[in-house]
Amino acid sequence: CHVGKAEDREKLITTALKRHQGIDILVSNAAVNPFFGNLMDVTEEVWDKVLSINVTATAMMIKAVVPEMEKRGYWY
To answer: Transmembrane region positions (predicted)?
Structure first.
């Protein structure tokens, strides 16, 4: 599953719901760091990839699973 791709996130959630009849918890541990070095040398392409996976994908996963967690009483 590539959490940076919306269709992969949707498939992951659909599969989890079918196999487990619900979602109780989300562990979001996907991250990338394709650049090691001085921040002043990082390219915009690399920066976009870091934000896409480390921030945006996590936020979109939370947004997608919270309604399912609320149905089961696991979101406070």
So the answer is: none
Tokens 């309604």, residue?
A: 67
pTM of the model: 0.82
Alpha-carbon separation of residue 11 from 4, 15, 36, 48 (angstroms): 12, 6, 32, 23
Residue 75 has pLDDT above 70, yes or no: no
What DSSP assignment string belongs to 28-70? ---------S-GGG--HHHHHHHHIIIIIHHHHHHHHHHHHHH
Domain ranges of the chain: 6-71
pLDDT in tens, 32-58: 999 999 999 999 999 999 999 999 999
